[in-house]
Structures are given as structure tokens and as C-alpha cells.
Amino acid sequence: MYESPFFKTSELHLLPQAPGVYKFHNSEGIVIYVGKAKSLKNRVSSYFNQSKTHNRKTLKLVREIHKIEISIVNSEFDALLLENSLIKELQPKYNILLKDDKSFPYLCVTNEPFPRIIATRNKNTRNGTYFGPYASVRAMNNVLELIRKLYTIRTCKLSLTDQNIQANKFKVCLEYHIGNCKGPCEGLQNQKSYNKDISLAEQILRGNLNIPKQYFREHMEREAEQFNFEEAQKFKEKLELLEKFQSKSLVVNPRLTDIDVCTIISEEKSAFLNYMKIKNGSIIVTHTIEIKKKLEETDEELLLMGIIDLQQLYQSESKEILTNIEVENIFKEFHTITPQIGDKKKLVEMSLKNALFFKKEKLNQNESSKIKELRVVKQLQADLQLKDLPLRIECFDNSNLGGTNPVASMVHFKNGRPAKNEYRHYHVKTVVGPDDFASMTEIVGRRYSRLQKENRPMPNLIVIDGGKGQLNAACIALKELNLYGEIPIIGIAKRLEEIYFPGDQYPIHISKKSESLKLLQRLRDEAHRFAITFHRNIRSKKTFVSELEGIQGIGEKTIDELLSHFKSLTKIKNASFEELSKVVGNSKAEILVRSLQNKKGELS
């Protein structure tokens, strides 16, 4: 059995053999993973009993488990829904998150007299009824354009209350004169007639094209019977518009309705999932997402999570879901089918084509991004006349605001992009007072002496944030390590973006439009940001510690525990006795509450 350093596995037998959701907390009380289970006891125990089958990431998760919290539910489906909701709310670091890096467009039928139909990306149900989201603005505009051709829906923002209309506050606009509006602002169209158009437009927004088609067909036939051929022609043209719109997305069989299709293509680190919503033989939604795998998620788990999430997003109530992989039908709320022949099989194949196309697009984008990054690195090599391609660049900066707490930072770029796991912070140890040059000599020396000792690869280029003085200070460290001349090193001065080389009296200037200069500026700015942030955190911590050190009975260990948990003095002052006692115990919590309350009294 695999033991967590925090959690006692002897307590696992207390877990129930019931469906539910479990939450893993780390030592700081943060939820790091949420999962669902048919049997909470069996599923949670498997993390500790089956450690030989786990990958590296799962073992890391288990090592961090400090507390396990469970919620028992009535069924597996309820567990799936609760898990989905908790993942969205808590966003645990070990869970996959089905989200896009964009906000989707919606069409909203507003809550006002003579409602409008507007496009928006901000969903607030108090403003009206929302339809969508649409996978693209183009898809949304196609629907909106169809509705405006079929119905005379107003586009103005006037407040068309009965009182305002009766008071003759408004005059008809150009939209009325060209036939796009019937003039409700002047009382030329009543609410009953207008709302009938809105009701039919909402059917189109829901994907129910048969209802407005039947409406136009009946009116066309009625007008024709009464020899009103001009009016009949208008209804005929609207009916043809609807049929043309439907034919663009007709799948194979108009009898296929209220069906969802969800297919998955899986790779080692990612999965690509396509979702389609079918009504009356038409695809009214198609959406593909990429899922980054985090632990040992199976394709079935990813597909179920995708189905729940995307059905909620697109407000689908379909009970039948077509898939390309076998999924155990354990839920009464919906059932999955993997069709082998016929029109449903063709739908699955179409969905898979969408997923494959999306995957190829993503790979092409990543490849294009890599080519661009390599191009910038090659340009930098040419501009600086470097012997080797600067694939690994390190940039140094130091910070001692007000001459206190001198610190430094080093950032590392690999292939033109930040490699944040290689970033380093430094406390300046050997320099007394605000001496930037000596500080630079120290940190550069410490960095590369360590790389030498650990036999790790050296960078292809070193960048120093500063002019000649800072550069010369860094060169002193390289000379002491016998690395001077082995690694190219430059300084970049902020004022005129001058590039200095060791031993050269005059700087060089790279074109301000050059991508290579922008890369150097990004390195310099990132090193500066990293140093400043570190410096502020240290000053904040010192203020925190100094205020607590004056409290009798509160030692260094207690201060460290408080700092680790609360992060700031303000949060400690606002914490309740119960919150403090959980961290440092009752007796020390009493001392803290009493002392901090006395200080508040003194200040007031």
C-alpha cells in the first residue's frame, strides 16, 4: 500500500460503498483533485492500493493528499453532475478543465416591450432569453440575417412603452421606409402582431424550423385561395428562404431529430472532442475542443465529461448520443450508441472528420509558432553575429529599492519562449549596501559555478539588464570561473536600447522594428518584473514578521506557520479565533487575538 506523508490510509475502511464525489485537499487546505465514484470506498482506496499501476503524475497527487472529503449522492449520474460542477467552481490543479480561451457569441431576445434580437458575448439572464452559444460569429450572423429577412424585428433602442407611444415621443426611421420595420414606435404595429413574429423567430433560434415553415406554407395557401397572389408570393419567398437555409446543413435524413453526436480522438497528452447537435436532420451546433490530459483519464471518462459539459453549454436535452467508442450505459438520463451502419453511422463519421480537422489545425498552428520562434532566434544570431544559435538565453537583473533587501533574478528563455521552471531568485549575500555592480558579480558567479558543479548545460547567450558597468561586473564573475569568452554576453541599456559587448567602447543599435530586439526587450522586462515581485514579497514578509515578533509567546516557528497559511498580516488580523486555532492551537490563538486587539485599540 502506498502511504501519503499526510493522510492515514488506515482510515480508508471508514469510507462508504456508495456513489458520490471525493475531494483531495493538500496540506494548505486547497482542493487539488475532484473525482466521482460508483463506490467511494473502492475508488479512493485504489489510489493507495494500486500504486504500481499509477503514472508519475498520479503518484505525485497521492503524495500531496492531506485530507479527503466526500459527498454521497443518490446515483452515478448525480455524481457525474456534481463532479462537473465542483471542477468548474474549484478548478483543481490535477483535474482537466473543459474550457475555451474565448467567449462565445449568443443571440438574446430582450425583456422589454417589443423585444429586440441582439448579438452579445455577455450572458445575463435578467436581460432576456439567450440562444446559443454559437461556435462562431459567422454562424450566429447567418441565423440573425435569416430572421431579419423573414420578420420585421426592430433594431432601435427606443423605450417603446405604451405611455411613450401614446405620447407620440418617437417618429419612424429609415428602417420603416425600406420595409424592415412596421413602425411600432408610432403605434403602426401592435404588440400581439409583433410578438407573433418574435415567437416564430424564437422557434428558428431553437432549431425548430418546421413550425415557421408550416406557418408560411399555410398563409401562402390561404392567400392563394383568396387570389391574393402578391401576398402569397411573399410567403412563398420566405418559405424558400427557410428551406434553403435548412438545406445548407441537412445531414442525411430529416427524420433524425433531437440527437447529439460526441466523438473523441485520443493521443498520449491530448484528446480532441467534437460535439454536434441535430434537429430535424440539420446540424444546428458543431463544436470541437482540445483536452489536455493530466492524470490517467480514459477516453470513456473524457467523453462522458465532454458530453455533460457541452450539453449544459448548448442547453441540449437529447436522450440519445451517438459516439465512436463504446461507453457503458449506466445512466437513465441518456444512453449512448455506437452505430455500425446507416445515417447515424454517417453522422459519427462526419463528427470524427471535424475532430481530425481540428487536430491537424492545432498541430499546424503549433508548428507555425515553432517556426516563427526559430526565425526570431536566427535573426538574433545574425544581429549579434553569434557563432551558435542562441536557443538558451539567460537574463539577469537586480533590485534594491531604497537600498534595502538587495535581491536579484534570472530568467531563462528556451527557443525564444520563457521556460519558467528555470527562473531563479537570489538573495544577495556577500555585498554590504546598495552596490549593483558587486551584486551582479555575485549572482552571475553563483549561477554558473552551480551549473559547473552540477555538470548542466550552459546558455548560448547571457543578457545583463544594464550598460557597461553592469556588463563588466558580470564579466568579472565569468573570468573567475574561466568561462569568459566561452559564453557570449551582452548588456542592454534601457534608455536608448543600446547593446554593449565586453571590451567594445561603443554600443550597437538593432532596428526598433526588429523581432530580435523585441525578444531582448521581452527578456529584460521579464527579468525586471521577476526581480521587483520578489523584492516586494520580501519587504512584505519582513513587515509581517516584525509585527508578530513583538508578541510575547509567539516564536519563529509559529510565525512561519502563520505566514505559510495566511500569507499576509491583514488576513491574520481579520481571522477568527477558530481559524487561528486550527493553525497554531488554542493557547497561541488566544495570545494573538488578545495582542492584535490591543494594537487595534492603541491605533484607535
Automatic annotation (TrEMBL):
Q: From which domain of life does this come? A: Bacteria
Q: Which coarse location class applies to the principal site listed for this UniProt protein?
A: cytoplasm
Every copy of the GIY-YIG domain together lies at 17-96
Q: Where is the UvrC family homology region profile domain?
A: 265-474
**Key words, A-Z:** Cytoplasm, DNA damage, DNA excision, DNA repair, Excision nuclease, SOS response
Q: What does this protein do?
A: The UvrABC repair system catalyzes the recognition and processing of DNA lesions. UvrC both incises the 5' and 3' sides of the lesion. The N-terminal half is responsible for the 3' incision and the C-terminal half is responsible for the 5' incision.
Q: Which family does it belong to?
A: Belongs to the UvrC family.
Spell out the protein name for this chain: UvrABC system protein C
Gene that produces this protein: uvrC
